[in-house]
Design a protein that fits this description.
The protein has 255 residues and is an alpha/beta fold. The chain has twelve helices and eight strands. The relative contact order is 0.16. Bound molecules: uridine-5'-diphosphate. The site of uridine-5'-diphosphate has 14 residues, from helix 9.
């Protein structure tokens, strides 16, 4: 697939089309995709995803086939600025999931949560229903299943009546799974959310709001899970900046 953007209002950043979308437009898009006829996927990118997309062509292809790709990390917003493009800001699902759920409750969009360790999606669903009365959770399932179990899980999702499928396996697993199975999935909107259910369920702490609001979500995540995430954030963030600078200085830039 070509690296140039086929969607309107996107920037092409390191070969990935990223939508110029703010959080409120994103919330509207997710719910209207869920109610639409044509199936669409919604995916996010952060600095780690951008680096991954440089090495993993299948993943980059999945991102470029999405209905919408939003910047989930401040790194992408700042990196894009270094590249000469402006994005409206970052949108983090752990902040705006409640707005999506409120819209889904008002517009009768049943939601299926798929992903995370056994029991986590169910706990996240309970928390969401508590916070958003009227929200219909069509079903939940954990994210640790083998590829031959996908058929059974797809049947479960399709028979649940869900219109919005929220998939949290982390990148690039969730994007590749959504792309592979999209044609057999009944929900009209498939949305990849990474570790969202861990946060919503309360199993993983997110950090103080003032740090989250000032672009330090990565630092909070690093403090909570240093062994798993140090590679992603310490050498990863440095490599991301170097990659953007290298492209900025040496690659031919498209207008
Ligand atoms: N996960 C999953 N199935 C897998 C691997 C991971 O459901 O085979 C879940 C994991 O439990 C966690 C999420 O995927 O809830 C990944 O979180 P991470 O923080 O890595 O995602 P990110 O938001 O950083 O992409």
């Amino acid at each position: 697939m070509s690296d140039s953007c086929s969607r309107k209002d996107c920037i092409e950043f390191l070969g990935v089309c990223v939508d110029k979308v703010d959080t409120s437009a994103l919330v509207d898009a997710i719910t209207s995709f869920a109610l639409g006829q044509e199936q669409k996927t919604v995916m996010y990118v952060n600095a780690d995803c951008m680096l991954l997309s440089q090495k993993n062509i299948e993943y980059r292809d999945a991102l470029n086939r999405a209905g919408l790709v939003y910047a989930d990390g401040i790194g992408v917003v700042l990196g894009a600025r270094l590249w000469g493009h402006r994005l409206p800001g970052r949108s983090t699902a752990a902040d705006f999931i409640y707005d999506v759920c409120r819209k889904c409750a008002v517009k009768d969009v049943p939601v299926f949560l798929l992903g995370a360790a056994e029991g986590v999606a169910k706990e996240a669903a309970e928390r969401l229903v508590q916070m958003v009365p009227g929200l219909e959770i069509a079903g939940t399932h954990h994210g640790y299943f083998s590829s031959h179990e996908s058929d059974r899980i797809i049947d479960m999702i399709n028979s649940s009546g869900a219109k919005l499928l929220v998939v949290g396996f982390g990148a690039p697993k969730q994007e590749l799974w959504m792309l592979e199975h999209a044609s057999r999935l009944a929900p009209r909107c498939l949305w990849g959310v990474g570790g969202l259910f861990d946060f919503v369920s309360g199993r993983t702490a997110r950090g103080p709001q003032w740090l989250l609001d000032n672009g330090f979500e990565w630092l909070c995540r690093l403090a909570v899970e240093p062994r798993r995430l140090w590679r992603r954030y310490i050498p990863g963030n440095i490599l991301f900046v170097l990659t953007v600078l290298r492209y900025r200085l040496f690659a031919s830039r498209k207008p």
